[in-house]
Amino acid sequence: MTSIISSMTTTQIAALSTLSISRLNTVDIAALSTAQAASLKSTQVSAFRTDAIVAFGSKISSLSVSAIVGLTSTQASNLATSEVSALLTSQVAALQGYQIASFSSGQIQAMTTDGIHALTSKSAAALTNSEIVALTSAQAAVLTTSALAALTTSQISAMETVDLAALSTAQIAAMTSVQIGALTTAEAEALTTNQVHALSSGQAAALSSAALAAMSTAQVSVLTTAATAALKAAQVAALTSAQTAALTTDQAHALTSVQAAALSSASVVALTSAQAAVLTTGALAALTTSQISAMETVDLAALSTAQIAAVTSSQIGALTTAEAVALTTNQVHALSSGQAAALSSAALAAMSTAQVSVLTTAATAALKAAQVAALTSAQTA
């Protein structure tokens, strides 16, 4: 049969019935020329015995794009790794999802980077979790943005951290918010600072609170102001004190009133004076009384008179004696009548004579009887 096969024209090869094809052995297949292999049709390819497919060797690349589609899942799973690596990009692009899913981890790793780059979005979505794990960093780095965006959340969660870290910023930007939400804490930790900086507002808001809290201070500090402002209250509440302290002044200024109110007491304590000084009046006014009481005195003293003016009477009433003593004379002078009247008697009595002496006449007149009664002789002198 071998001598007969080798002497056939391409037209004769193309005319062979599937029954005749199924009877060809490995020796017959090995005798095929590249031109003869190129003449095969998809139905003929499907008829080959599994061991015969393996005998194609490098001639696998001679199969037409239409013929490669004829590979059954069993045939595809039995391709030698050398055959898989020999596939042309046009052939890879033609592979069907069931064929891709039938590949072993070894076959996936055998694919060239050009081959991986040729995977369509449908083919990428067909990769099993085991195949995703098998991808090398070099292969992950060449997935098209459409192929990457087509991956399921299960596939994203299965991706190895080194592969995720190998993705370009363009690939990261192509990921859907749903995919970003599927990142594990280990994967979130593995993101490079360039990748974190590339996250859009929608992607940042999709991060799980656990994933965000697992990030390093270096990662958190490179979120864009837009991404920072997009974080949900639950995400902000999950920030560690170290992460909060690592926020840039631009990021601190970007915090919304909802986000400011979500800061944990530990995060409020962690705020630096520079960060406190750039909080918007809206964010500052949104702080709870417990947050105000937790603020460090140096941070409170760093607030501008405009920020002080934005503080609510309830917040002023929550000032501790230490915080009241820390107020600068400019800040005290900026207190409105309502704010002065809201000071606790203990807080007012703790103030220095220099502080009390700069209260405006309106603020002084607004003091309650209990507050006046608490004034020290030095304060009234």
Task: For this entry, give a set of tags.
rod-shaped, 47 helices, 381 residues, mainly alpha
Q: Total strand count, please?
A: 0
Oligomer: single chain
Cα end-to-end separation:
121 Å
Number of helices: 47
The amount of helix comes to: 55-70%
Structural class: mainly alpha
Radius of gyration: 35 Å
Mean pLDDT: 95
Main beta sheet: none
Stretches where pLDDT falls below 50 for ≥5 residues?
none
Percent strand? under 5%
- Based on CA inertia axes, which overall geometry fits? rod-shaped
Descriptive account of the structure:
The protein has 381 residues and is mainly α. Helix content is 67%, strand content 0%. The protein is built from 47 helices and no strands. The radius of gyration is 35 Å and the shape is rod-shaped. The mean pLDDT is 95.
